[in-house]
Amino acid sequence: MDVLALRRRLFAGIAIVSGLGLVAEVWHARSDDAVIEALLPKLSLSFEANVPTWFSSSLLLGCALVAGAIAARRSAWHRHWWGITAVLTWMSLDEAAELHEHLGGHFETSGLLFYDWVIPAAAILTVLGVAYLRFVRALAPHTRNRLLVAAAIYITGALLMELPLGWWAEHHGSENLAYALIDWAEETLEMIGASLALVALVAHRQEPQR
Q1: 56 contacts 44 by C-beta, under 8 angstroms
Q2: Cα–Cα distance for residue pair 122/189, rounded to 1 Å
């Protein structure tokens, strides 16, 4: 598979899905037209079970499949690759079914931590980071750098952007354009991070086994 062509296609997909979602949000904020009322739930990045959700979930599932193919080669780190495959599969399922919502509701928080599920999520992320530190260091530098950049972008969207989103929701509610734009930025960063991860994994899969 041509990695450069894959990257171009993935980012073209992001531009279309994210762009349509942004247009839908701005249009909805300026009009009560029946057409946009019907289109918004299907195109908005703030809604679930729609085109953006399918796209994001598919990206993560693609990452899981490629990671599984790498693990199947039974390299020295194949157990770690199987772990990554499991995590990515769960993330794909979570994107479609919002499983992470069950992590919330256990803390009395407000402000930036209004969405309290970020607390256990950050703890889980820290544990995984420590557990995979040696694995990350063992990766080839170009693969390591690509995956770290992809992870940083994805985590910024999935976790860090929840902080201003929660603050805004607490103080101004979620039924407004500003909330939708913050959420749009969050989901777009997730798609970019997942796409970069998929490209990095495909490139790594095509390299000779070490």
Answers
A1: no
A2: 18
In sequence order, which residues have a C-beta less than 8 Å from that of residue 189 and are 6 or more positions away? Answer: 153, 154, 156, 157, 158, 161
| Residues 166 and 113: beta-carbon distance below 8 Å | yes
**Domain interval for residue 43:** 3-206
Share above pLDDT 90 across residues of the chain, in percent, rounded to a whole number: 87
- Report the alpha-carbon distance of residue 200 to residue 203 in Å, rounded: 5
pLDDT tier for residue 103 given thresholds of 50, 70 and 90: low
3-class state of residue 49 by DSSP = coil
**pTM recorded for the entire structure:** 0.94
CB under 8 A, 24+ apart: contacts of 18-25? 18/45, 18/52, 18/184, 18/187, 18/188, 18/191, 20/51, 21/45, 21/52, 21/184, 21/187, 22/181, 22/184, 25/177, 25/180, 25/181, 25/184
Taking residue 3's Cβ as centre, other Cβ atoms within 10 Å add up to 15
Rounded Cα gap, residues 97 and 189, in angstroms: 19
Q: Number of folded domains in the chain?
A: 1
